[in-house]
Amino acid sequence: MARPKTITDQRLLDAAHEVIARVGPGFTLAQVAAEAGVSVGTVGGRFGSKAGLLRALFAHATAVVAVGMRTAAEAEDDPVAGLRAAATVTFVSLGDAESAANHLSQLGFDLIDPHLRAMLGTHFEVMQDELRRAFRRAAPLLPGAPGEDLASRVLLSLVNGISIDWSIRPHGRLVDRLSDDVDAVLTAWGRR
Questions:
Q1: Comparing C-alpha atoms, which of 164, 9, 23, 88 is closest to residue 80?
Q2: CATH code assigned at 165
Q3: Could you tell me the pLDDT band of residue 191, with boundaries at 50, 70 and 90?
Q4: Coil, helix or strand for 57?
Q5: Is residue 70 a contact partner of residue 133, using CB atoms and an 8 Å limit?
C-alpha cells in the first residue's frame, strides 16, 4: 500500500515560486526542497525533474490566474472597474522588482522548451478569455472600444508589456502602473 502524501503539491509549488523569485532560472530542486523543508527526493519523486516541476508550476499558475481574474472582475459592481480589476490582478504574484526580474529570466528559459512555450500560450489564452469575459460586461460603457476579441488582445498585450517593462525598469508598484495604464486605455475607449 502506498504511503499517504503528507507534503502537498501546493507546498512544493509555493516553494518553487519563492525560489524562482530569489534565484531565477538557475534554481535547483535542492533549493526548492530546502524552501519546502523536505528532501530532494520528495521533490524529484513528485515531479520527476526540474522540467516536470516547471510544467506543474505553469498548470497551477494558469488555474490560479483564471480564478483570480474572474473573482476580481465579479467583485466590482461597476463593470469597467471589474475589467480594470481583472487586468491589474494578473501579475500581482510577481512581487517586488527583483522577484519579477527573476521570474522574467525564468520565462526566457521557458520559451526554449516547446512544451513550456505551449503551456505559456495556454496561460495567455486563459488570461485573454477572462479579459474577454470582463470586457463583455463593460462594453456598453465603453462606446469607443473595439470588438471584444481585439479589446481583450490589446489589454492582454498591455498588461504583459507593462509587467515586462516594470520588471526591467521598476518605478513604484506594479499594480499602480498596471492600473494607471489600463485606465488610460479605458478612458480612450470613452468610458461613460
A1: 88
A2: 1.10.357
A3: low
A4: helix
A5: yes
**Residue 71, pLDDT above cutoff 90:** yes
| Residue labelled with grid coordinates 505553469 | 58
pTM of the predicted structure, to 2 decimals? 0.90
What is the structure's pLDDT at 170?
Answer: 84
Q: Decide if 19 is inside a domain.
A: no
- Contact of 139 with 148, CB cutoff 8 Å: yes
Domain interval for residue 114: 50-188
64 within domain boundaries? yes
**Buried (b) or exposed (e) across 46-75, using 16+ Cβ within 10 A?**
bbeebeebbbbbbebbbeebbebbbebbee
Q: 3-class DSSP state for residue 37?
A: coil
Give, for 94, the enclosing helix (H) or strand (E).
Answer: none
Residue 67 cell numbers, joined: 480564478
Percent of the chain residues past pLDDT 70, beyond the cut: 96
For residue 100, what pLDDT is reported? 85
In the prediction, which pLDDT does 99 show? 87
Say which residues have a Cβ less than 8 Å from residue 154's Cβ, sequence separation at least 6. Answer: 146, 185
